[in-house]
Amino acid sequence: MPHIWVEYSANLSDALNVPRLLQTVQDAVIDDGSIFPFAGARTRAVPVENYLIVDGHPDNGFVHVLVKIGPGRSDAEKSALGERVFGALGDYLDPLMAQRPLGISLQIEEAHPQFNYKLNNYRDYLKARAGQRSDDA
């Protein structure tokens, strides 16, 4: 963990650089890697086709970020995470917000330790890829 979902209204598809948005959010979550490990990051975008925003005007849009984290972080660490990610998200979306009605939100959830199952080998591959780069240099 962290696992990150970026939901956005489908009417923003042409206005968003989704890979850059994902990178912006993930970089803000990971920061220096001391609290939230890079090897645990899973970030995905989900366009939402069906939605109703306030008065239903077709220009209304939204971007909502959900960050699920493992247990054990202090409230201060979670608060710093929220400030950091929401700040980066706001900075990235500021030009779009200046052009159209847009709602931006962020939610942080802590996964229950007993009911959180996972299996991966990403760290092994990260280590191998780092070794390949050293060998190629």
Automatic annotation (TrEMBL):
- GO MF annotations, alphabetized: 5-carboxymethyl-2-hydroxymuconate delta-isomerase activity
Q: Name one Pfam family in it.
A: CHMI
Source organism superkingdom: Bacteria
Record bears the keyword Disulfide bond: no
Give the stretches traversing the membrane. Answer: none
Question: Which keywords are on file for this protein?
Answer: Isomerase
Name used for this protein in its record:
5-carboxymethyl-2-hydroxymuconate Delta-isomerase
The major lineage groups are: Bacteria, Pseudomonadati, Pseudomonadota, Betaproteobacteria, Burkholderiales
